[in-house]
UniProtKB/TrEMBL annotation:
Residues 4-74 form the Protein CotJB domain. InterPro entries: CotJB_dom. Keywords: Capsid protein, Virion. It comes from Faecalibacillus intestinalis. It comes from the Bacteria. This is Spore coat protein CotJB.
Length: 93
């Protein structure tokens, strides 16, 4: 996994975690500040990653080819099977 993508994943996890914390501690100002600052940083990182041709999901549209051709994170660069990522037998219309 690309280092930038790893950093995005880590920060995304932290944001999700603080969001869950805020569900039970809605008045915690420090957590709210962490969320707001973290979201600003996360959105900036995602925007930069997408502009540089990275693909965060298969729904990013313009970077679909990059997403399809990237190896799965658990294969460490070995494309052993593309059937789950490259094939779709469900008609759209």
């Amino acid at each position: 996994m690309d280092d930038t993508l790893l950093q995005i994943s880590k920060l995304d996890f932290c944001i999700q975690d603080v969001t869950l914390f805020l569900d039970t501690h809605p008045d915690d100002q420090e957590a709210k500040k962490y969320y707001k600052e973290g979201m600003k940083h996360l959105l900036k990182m995602k925007e930069t990653y997408l502009k540089n041709g990275g693909a965060l999901t298969n729904r990013d549209g313009k970077n679909l080819e990059n997403y399809i051709n990237e190896p799965f994170p658990w294969t460490k660069g070995e494309l052993s099977c593309g059937c789950m990522k490259n094939a779709c037998n469900i008609p759209l219309m």
